[in-house]
Amino acid sequence: MEPPPPAVAAVVASPEPEEGDLVTNKRVILKRYVTGCPRVEDMEVVSGTARLAVTPGSPAVVVKNLYLSCDTYMRTRMRRRAAPSFVPNYVPGEVLENCAVSKVVASGHPDFKPGDLLWGVTGWEEYTLITDPRFCHKISYPEFPLSYYTGVLGVPGITAYAGLFQVAKAKKGEYVFVSAASGAVGQIVGQLAKLIGCYVVGSAGSDEKVNLLKNKLGYHDAFNYKKELDLNAALKRCFPDGIDVYFENVGGAMLDAVLRNMRQYGRIAVCGQVSQYNLERPDGAPDLFLLVAKSLRMEGFLASDYAGGYRRFEEEMARYLREGKVVYVEDVAEGIEAAPAALVGLFAGRNVGKQVVALARE
Predict the structure, then answer these.
(1) What are the tens digits of pLDDT across the range 285-311?
(2) Per-residue pLDDT tens digits for 73-121
(3) Of 32, 131, 201, 358, which has the fewest CB atoms closer than 10 Å, so is most exposed?
(4) pLDDT recorded at residue 82
(5) What secondary structure, in 3-state letters, does the chain show?
(6) How would you class 3 by CB atoms within 10 Å of its CB: exposed for 0-12, middle for 13-18, buried for 19 or more?
(7) What top-level branch of life does the organism fall under (predicted)?
(8) Prediction pTM value
(9) Helical pair 252-261 and 231-238, crossing angle rounded to 10 deg
(10) Residue 243 · residue 232 · CB < 8 Å
């Protein structure tokens, strides 16, 4: 899962207007490029200032960040990469960035006014100057928790929706497997698949998360992959007739086992591969000849590829939430000082549900 294209400049790093209230602005910076599993010490919360104004004639907006999104993809931006990727590396000494829910405090853009609530890419800081707000979205349904726009009504939601229906093309009666099933994206995938009449099984990394999948999120079955000595056998137990659709979030040994259990003409939507993010050298490829032998289709995708359908998705998902057909589980950390530990905790499985950092509750 990845955010829309970044369009952010941190307030303290941008030309400031001569007038406007000057406020303290705590921000999370990357101290150094990361190798292996990220540590809290790889980041630092520092204090600067932000001016709550925009330069006259500028289309920029200044926002107060309310909820920051924590996502595993951020780890891929913390390494020194020579080869280009779909998003640039973070730069040591500069503020991290990711999706957030924010409130406009100053604006030179005709589509945004002070007090508007929006979500989009901002700095991991209390205030951000967004120099190009084209990729920001006004919040249409403020009756839901605003933090939902870092999750079920934001990038994770459109990722789940597009991956399941437009990439994997899941259909009623099919057998669907979701790895990292209790996470930001996985919990939505399983519920959407069940809504259209699929048989849905998920994997997670603790008994607590397995119980969540089965008793709150409505998965037909689930297993704790950390307790399974043989993933191939676990999948055969859950899917004696094989898997039609796999929503891939993990990679590595799980992908290898899934390929062996896919049915003929099955589809695999590759959203992420979290087991690989902390490795200097990715695991060797699984037996990809199974793609040929079983006539499988395996396709990676970016949420931004489907951004044009966001408003239609938002309306549909809001209806599911209102009717109780989809529920969403969040793990909320309080305050910007908690952000580094919240991000690191994703890789130890400490979060239960979508990880969010609350900066201000408005």
Answers:
(1) 789 999 999 999 999 999 999 999 999
(2) 999 999 988 777 788 999 999 999 999 999 999 999 999 999 999 999 9
(3) 32
(4) 75
(5) CCCCCCCCECHHHCCCCCCCCEEEEEEEEECCCCCCCCCHHHEEEEEEEEECCCCCCCCCEEEEEEEEECCHHHHHHCCCCCCCCCCCCCCCCCECEEEEEEEEEEECCCCCCCCCEEEEEEECECEEEECCHHHCEECCCCCCCHHHHHCCCCHHHHHHHHHHHHHCCCCCCCEEEECCCCCCCHHHHHHHHHHCCCEEEEEECCHHHHHHHHHCCCCCEEEEHHHCCCHHHHHHHHCCCCEEEEEECCCHHHHHHHHHHEEEEEEEEECCCHHHCCCCCCCCCCCCHHHHHCCCEEEECCHHHHHHHHHHHHHHHHHHHHCCCCCCCEEEEECHHHHHHHHHHHCCCCCCCEEEEECCCC
(6) buried
(7) Eukaryota
(8) 0.92
(9) 40
(10) no
Q: Retrieve residue 144's tokens.
A: 């839901």
Phi first, then psi, for residue 152 (nearest 5°) are -60, -30
Query: How far apart, in Å, are the Cα atoms of 242 and each of 53, 223, 279, 290?
Result: 58, 16, 30, 14
Q: What is the pLDDT of residues 24-50, one digit of tens each?
A: 999 999 999 999 999 999 999 999 999
Q: How far apart (Å, rounded) are the C-alpha atoms in residues 227 and 238?
A: 15
Residue 289: exposure state from Cβ atoms within 10 A (0-12, 13-18, ≥19): exposed
pLDDT bucket at 20, cuts 50 / 70 / 90: low
Strand partners, 67: 101, 358
Answer whether 336's CB lies under 8 Å from 357's CB: yes
Contact 220, 193 (CB under 8 A): no
The amino acid at residue 5 is: P
